[in-house]
């Protein structure tokens, strides 16, 4: 698990944006989408490792999305973006964050063991990929 966590941490560090001047092009919105996808996947994996009792999809979605939304609000309040541009950027990030947290929880992380009323406990299948 530590090797996977280190790999995800390296991926997150590589996804931090550089200082640039953006616009509303497809490339800009794909950048927000992929940023949401990567950061929410990383937060989902970290929350699964450190706080397994929490809902990892919810924490993986809400934490990066709220930070991104606050950043877009800051850009709007300082006059760097219009309201429509900020809403578009935040929406693309939120869509990527939802897909990243759901996909990471469902397909990359081992499912959590849950009690089942009739049969005791059930577990899922673990999927690993080496890079």
Ends apart, CA distance between termini: 14 Å
Gross morphology is elongated
Q: Estimate what percentage of residues fall within beta strands.
A: under 5%
Query: Structural class from helices and strands?
Result: mainly alpha
Query: What is the β-strand count?
Result: 2
Report the sheet with the most strands, covering strand number, pairing sense and barrel closure: 2 strands, antiparallel
Series of secondary-structure elements, N-terminal to C-terminal: HHHHEE
Mean pLDDT, to the nearest integer, reads: 79
- Catalogue the unreliable spans: none
Provide the spatial order of strands within the biggest beta sheet: 1-2
Radius of gyration: 17 Å
Q: What is the count of structural domains? A: 1
- Percent helix, as a range, is 55-70%
Number of helices: 4
Keywords: Signal
């Amino acid at each position: 698990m530590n090797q996977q966590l280190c790999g995800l941490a390296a991926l997150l560090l590589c996804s931090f944006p550089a200082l640039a001047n953006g616009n509303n092009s497809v490339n800009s919105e794909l950048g927000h989408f992929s940023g949401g996808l990567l950061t929410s996947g990383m937060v989902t994996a970290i929350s699964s490792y450190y706080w397994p009792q929490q809902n990892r999809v919810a924490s993986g979605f809400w934490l990066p999305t709220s930070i991104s939304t606050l950043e877009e609000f800051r850009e709007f309040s300082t006059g760097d973006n219009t309201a429509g541009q900020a809403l578009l950027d935040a929406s693309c990030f939120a869509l990527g964050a939802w897909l990243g947290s759901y996909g990471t929880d469902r397909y990359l992380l081992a499912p959590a063991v849950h009690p089942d009323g009739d049969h005791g406990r059930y577990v899922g299948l673990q999927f690993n990929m080496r890079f």
